[in-house]
């Protein structure tokens, strides 16, 4: 039964950006609200432009009750074409994946998004001609291969007035001066030099215009193999040890070529093993970390757990949630990547050894590990501008293939892999373990992950600096020829007003180290270890998952507390690593010094804000970290206002703004996934115990376990 709401009579038109064109539209489309088994929803117009798919209802034009955290570019019911993951049509209650030309048009459209939103549109009441136009339009514009110049990025850049200075203290690393400044900041300029050898891209189109190499490396060496086999500098530690990366030679070569390349490499290694350089340790990431294909497979499985169609689906997966999560292998990949970063940090920090990361192109896992090591070892990378500069240096200028890895052009699924998302997941682990060490919040990381799919910024839409530079020239709509002026994602004012931007900054960031205040008791670490999973498996793991007795009474709402993975005995870190790891964790944390993530057992958690923000069932009302944060912010506000009063009483009236973050005063009404889920509706939970309820569904395979009633309102808060 459909709860019919009168179709809207007044005309609602989409808000179009400069360069955005309306391609097709359909009226009387019914959008379901997927909160429970009912078919409640709202009527409106579904439109497709060269930038987005948007649903417009009669509330779209009103500015009342606007959320505090509103994106100015992408609205609540907007899906950018790059954000569309898969589109399904429903024919006679059966779901079918829609691609290419359609012979028959569905009565219902389901759009799964890369930011994990799920949209359900009923087309039963829409005119047949409009259904054909809108469905084929959406499928064509979001799923078929594109040419680079057909991206909305270029339409927007040629039509939009570019008055913003997006640098925002972020170092872009597109000039020689930026590299020299970074060498000076890290005191690496004694042993390393910024080179101009690649000006005009005469060495390689994959390398940036400017980069840094050891002083002893000659220009001839760089030119010899198009930059392959050359150690490129990433960062220098305070003790002089440096992190380097190298693009490996192809493995399948004839013998003579292979011998020449080996001799060349031996010469390079000898040169950089002599004083003033420290010892050198090489690490081939292609053999020591999962392959890109493994990462893609794991993430594809993992994201399916969060693309929930309705409440029934949620509770169905809840019955075997932990075993489903384990089977994806995504959290294990995060753990292995963090472990590798700790190993590299140990070499640099304790052994004073240079580390050379090797990978085929040095633009995927090299970017992940080098960025993580810098976040862990350099407190500047934990500030907002420092982290943004790091992404520019290692990823954007470093040549990570965003276009291919995000599959923005739908050219090849084989190239797709969520490498940048893997980094953000790893950084999130550190942010949630050591919040005072970071100037930015998890909300910042979440909107940064969303920005991967917003094609008005050039930051994440090219494979290399060369590709961007060669596509900069174009015709402006104002009939004057000139280079495109692309926006950078680091200018947050394009997406958020100042009030919303406040959610990206951490009010509890420890600007100066306060060792006395931040001391942790050693006992706390030991206490947590008691809750860890065993380090060796005493018996074979069963299909029923590894969280059996301890977690039967928990559900996904608190999955962060209990999700982890066995560390198999074969995977046990070497003694020196373990000693370094345990020794660091037994001391008080210096929020401006080295930070090592906790990686044992259930310390690796699911990034709940990103993955669960659209699922009402997974929200704690008045609970979660946001409730704590709201109280702390209230206290800070009170302390600051008292300070102002004291100053005035002592006749030292200083006009100062009381720093406040726009929080809702009543934290009891906030969702635990605030600010994305503001005051979300309560979900309706099945009244029966989960096992009984599932038995009724004839799903015996899910319930061959002693499953008890799962209580949402118990001890979770």
Features:
12% strand, 4-stranded mixed β-sheet, PH-domain like, alpha+beta, Prot-tyrosine_phosphatase-like
Outline the secondary-structure elements.
Blueprint: E1 22-32, E2 41-49, E3 52-56, E4 78-80, E5 84-91, E6 94-97, E7 108-113, E8 118-122, H1 128-143, H2 152-159, H3 176-185, E9 192-195, E10 211-214, H4 219-224, E11 232-236, E12 242-247, H5 255-273, E13 280-284, H6 285-288, H7 292-304, H8 311-318, H9 321-328, H10 330-349, E14 354-359, H11 365-377, H12 384-396, H13 402-405, H14 419-433, H15 442-450, H16 465-470, E15 473-475, E16 481-483, H17 498-501, H18 522-531, H19 548-551, H20 559-562, H21 575-585, H22 608-612, H23 625-649, H24 690-696
Parallel strand pairs: 12-14, 13-14
Antiparallel strand pairs: 1-2, 1-8, 2-3, 3-4, 5-6, 5-7, 7-8, 9-10, 11-12, 15-16
Largest beta sheet: what is the strand line-up? 4-3-2-1-8-7-5-6
The amount of beta strand, in percent, is 5-15%
Overall strand count: 16
What is the first-to-last residue Cα distance? 36 Å
Residues in helices, as a percent range: 25-40%
Q: Number of helical segments?
A: 24
Average of the residue pLDDT scores: 82
User: Major beta sheet, specifics?
Assistant: 8 strands, antiparallel
- The SS-based structural class is alpha+beta
Identify the overall geometry: globular
User: How many whole angstroms does the radius of gyration measure?
Assistant: 27 Å
Poorly predicted residue ranges: 476-480, 517-572, 653-659, 686-717
């Amino acid at each position: 039964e459909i709860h019919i709401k009168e179709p809207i009579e007044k005309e609602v038109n989409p808000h179009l950006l400069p360069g955005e064109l309306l391609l097709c539209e359909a009226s009387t489309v019914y959008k379901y609200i997927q909160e429970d088994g009912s078919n409640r929803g709202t009527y409106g117009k579904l439109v497709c432009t060269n930038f987005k798919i948007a649903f417009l209802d009669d509330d779209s034009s009103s500015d009342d009750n606007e959320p505090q955290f509103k994106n100015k570019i992408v609205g609540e019911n907007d899906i950018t074409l790059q954000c569309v993951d898969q589109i399904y049509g429903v024919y006679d209650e059966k779901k079918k994946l829609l691609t290419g030309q359609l012979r028959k048009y569905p009565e219902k459209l389901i759009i799964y998004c890369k930011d994990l939103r799920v949209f359900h549109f009923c087309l039963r009441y829409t005119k047949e001609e409009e259904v054909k136009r809108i469905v084929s339009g959406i499928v064509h514009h979001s799923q078929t291969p594109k040419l680079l110049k057909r991206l909305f990025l270029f339409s927007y850049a040629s039509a939009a007035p570019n008055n913003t200075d997006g640098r925002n203290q972020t170092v872009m690393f597109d000039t020689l001066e930026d590299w020299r400044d970074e060498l000076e900041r890290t005191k690496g300029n004694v042993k390393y030099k910024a080179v101009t050898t690649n000006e005009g891209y005469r060495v390689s189109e994959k390398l940036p215009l400017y980069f840094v190499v050891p002083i002893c490396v000659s220009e001839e060496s760089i030119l010899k193999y198009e930059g392959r086999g050359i150690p490129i500098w990433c960062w220098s530690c305070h003790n002089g040890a440096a992190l380097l990366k190298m693009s490996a030679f192809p493995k399948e070569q004839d013998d003579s070529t292979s011998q020449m390349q080996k001799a060349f490499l031996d010469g390079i290694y000898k040169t950089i093993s002599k004083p003033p350089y420290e010892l050198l340790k090489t690490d081939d990431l292609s053999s020591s970390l999962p392959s890109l294909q493994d990462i893609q497979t794991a993430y594809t499985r993992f994201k399916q757990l969060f693309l929930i169609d309705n409440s029934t689906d949620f509770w169905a997966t809840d019955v075997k949630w932990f075993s489903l999560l384990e089977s994806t292998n995504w959290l294990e990949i995060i753990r292995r990547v963090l472990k590798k970063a700790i190993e590299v940090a140990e070499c640099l920090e304790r052994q004073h050894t240079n580390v050379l990361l090797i990978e085929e192109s040095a633009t995927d896992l090299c970017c992940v590990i080098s960025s993580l090591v810098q976040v862990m070892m350099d407190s500047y990378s934990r500030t907002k501008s420092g982290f943004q500069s790091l992404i520019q240096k290692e990823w954007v200028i470093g040549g990570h293939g965003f276009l291919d890895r995000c599959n923005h052009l739908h050219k090849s699924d084989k190239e797709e892999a969520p490498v940048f998302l893997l980094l953000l997941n790893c950084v999130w682990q550190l942010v949630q373990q050591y919040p005072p060490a970071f100037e930015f919040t998890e909300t910042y990381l979440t909107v940064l992950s969303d920005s991967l799919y917003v094609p008005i910024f050039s930051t994440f839409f090219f494979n290399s600096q060369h590709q961007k530079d060669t596509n900069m020239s174009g015709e402006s709509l104002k009939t004057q020829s000139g280079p495109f002026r692309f926006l950078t994602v680091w200018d947050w004012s394009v997406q958020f007003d100042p009030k919303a931007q406040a959610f990206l900054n951490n009010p509890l960031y420890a600007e100066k180290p306060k060792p006395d205040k931040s001391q942790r008791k050693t006992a706390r670490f030991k206490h947590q270890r008691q809750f860890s999973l065993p380090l060796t498996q005493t018996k074979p793991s069963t299909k029923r998952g590894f969280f059996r007795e301890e977690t039967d009474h928990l559900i996904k709402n608190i999955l962060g507390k209990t999700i982890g993975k066995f560390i198999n005995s074969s995977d046990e870190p070497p003694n020196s690593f373990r000693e370094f790891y345990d020794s660091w964790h037994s001391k008080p944390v210096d929020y401006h010094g080295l930070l090592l993530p906790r990686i044992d057992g259930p310390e690796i958690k699911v990034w709940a804000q990103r993955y669960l923000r659209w699922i009402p069932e997974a929200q704690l009302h008045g609970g979660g970290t946001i409730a704590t944060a709201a109280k702390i912010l209230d206290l800070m506000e009170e302390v600051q206002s008292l300070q102002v009063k004291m100053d005035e009483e002592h006749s030292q009236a200083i006009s100062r703004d009381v720093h406040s973050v726009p929080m809702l005063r009543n934290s009891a009404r906030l969702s635990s996934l605030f600010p994305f889920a503001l005051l979300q509706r309560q979900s309706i939970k099945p009244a029966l115990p989960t096992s009984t309820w599932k038995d009724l569904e004839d799903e015996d395979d899910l319930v061959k376990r002693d499953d008890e009633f799962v209580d949402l309102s118990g001890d979770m808060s």
